[in-house]
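Before relying on records like the one below, remember that each one covers exactly one chain. Contacts with other chains, cofactors or solvent are not represented anywhere in the record.
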Amino acid sequence: MRFALSALSCYFLAFEFGGILSDSKAFSAIYLSIGLSYLGVGLVAPLIAIVLSEHGENSLLVGLIGSTMFTAFTIASFPVGALTDRLGPKTVLIAGLVVYGVAILAFAFIRVTWLFFVVRAIEGVGASAISVATETMINRLSKPDERARRMSYYALSIGIGWAAGPIAGTLLFGIRPEVPFIGCFVLSIVAALMAASLIKKSPSGSDHSEGILTVHSSNIIVPISAGAFYGYLMSSLVTLFPLYLKKEIMLPETAMGGIITAVIVGTIVSQVPIGHAADRFGKRKTLLVCTVLLGGVFALMPLHTDWRLFLVTGAMAGALAGSLYPIGLALIGDIFSKRRLGAATATFSLAFGLGSLIGPSMSGFAMTHFNNARWLFYLPTLLSAAFVLEMAILYRKTTRRSPTAPNPG
């Protein structure tokens, strides 16, 4: 029951936010769908590791199975984007929720190790369909002056789902190992039924498939850079930040947990204010300011000698980094026409996936090569500066598309 309440609270929160904007019922269904998707990610990842360890599998195999989902998510982005433009995002969203729910359910019953690879790959395809379809739908349904707010509520749903997943999964796993997987399947089907009944079917974007070759203009460089940078930060810090705190700062587990919680809280709490700021002051300006400040925060982190300072800078880093994903997506909606949003969103998802895949290895290589763990923070500082320079050079390329203007690319 707690599991269901944790997931459904995302729906009621989104419904309240959506009430004063356009298509509140449709957006509530969208936010619930993505919240459930990331609830499953947070729920499944630690539990699969537990199940596999009980089967006697080693850490390498557990890691490979974990990376299978994100690899499948990344690879599936382009065909899913083409399907979204061809069939419409509602159809792809419903199919994705069903596929995702069935994959989660399968974890409750499979016992053979190689099947974990297969099911995680299927889960990744379903998650890709959910993400690309919801992001495309938000951009299509949003008015230009509310798009960043809508994307911030979307990011908030992701944060709540991801944060609630491990807690809910641990509680329900204690009842019976199958319960959390079955519960997530049920909620995924409920979300699919809500999407089918509450979201109006929008016309398909085009009669032919479109991918990176048709959306490769310079207009998309800044948004996809934001997605890749966010993926890099998320994966590298989640993987290596706890190790840095333990080995370099000599923190006990309780203090380490407090810092990680501060990062998560900063990310969640900042989403709505940053979204409102982006709609009020401009998406490009807000993204530029947030990235400058983010680089400054990462430049300060290697100087910390008191672990309590990480509570402040960790929360700030989470808040500022959290602006990259929703504002980047909102810029996609401003730049591309509705008929090409699926392909453009898929390109963004691919960039995010690639950033997530290379983040830990890139940071780990720098830390090892230079024999200095502080490169965990030096690299984000340098990448922030590079992204600021890129935005300054391409500032005019990311202006809102005129209704009468031809498509970029």
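The chain has two domains: 2-209, 214-398.
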